[in-house]
Design goal:
Structural class: mainly alpha
CATH class: Mainly Alpha
Distance between the termini: 17 Å
Largest sheet: none
Number of domains: 1
Oligomer: single chain
CATH topology: Serine Threonine Protein Phosphatase 5, Tetratricopeptide repeat
Strand content: under 5%
Number of helices: 6
CATH architecture: Alpha Horseshoe
Length: 114
């Protein structure tokens, strides 16, 4: 994933996290965002996994975990997390944009046009 895509994803994370974060997951969400900004994706993954465990109803936690899975190349897991985030907060424009961009990147990685 190139740096521009990562920056755009992080911007979406920062915007989306505040909009749909719930108190149980917010500390881990913030820690994960800081780790992702430092390009420590293992730590971001750990924090966002913890956020989902603490608050499975947090769309932001599922969205951010999807980004971490995508960064690892775990396409199926990323798709599952984006779907969960969208189900939890179907009106969230940032999550919708992240999910749509993911679908396009996934198709491109498969050698198909979106």
């Amino acid at each position: 994933m190139n740096r521009t895509i990562v920056v755009l994803l992080l911007l979406g994370l920062l915007l989306g996290a505040g909009a749909c974060a719930r108190p149980l997951a917010s500390g881990a969400l913030t820690a994960g965002i800081r780790a992702a900004q430092a390009e420590d994706w293992d730590e971001a993954f750990r924090q966002w996994t913890a956020a989902v465990e603490r608050d499975p109803g947090s769309a932001a936690a599922h969205n951010n975990l999807a980004v971490a899975y995508e960064k690892k190349g775990a396409w199926d897991e990323a798709a599952r997390e984006y779907e969960t985030a969208l189900r939890l907060d179907p009106g969230n424009a940032e999550i919708k944009a992240n999910a749509e961009a993911f679908r396009a990147r996934r198709e491109a990685a498969r050698g198909k046009t979106p």
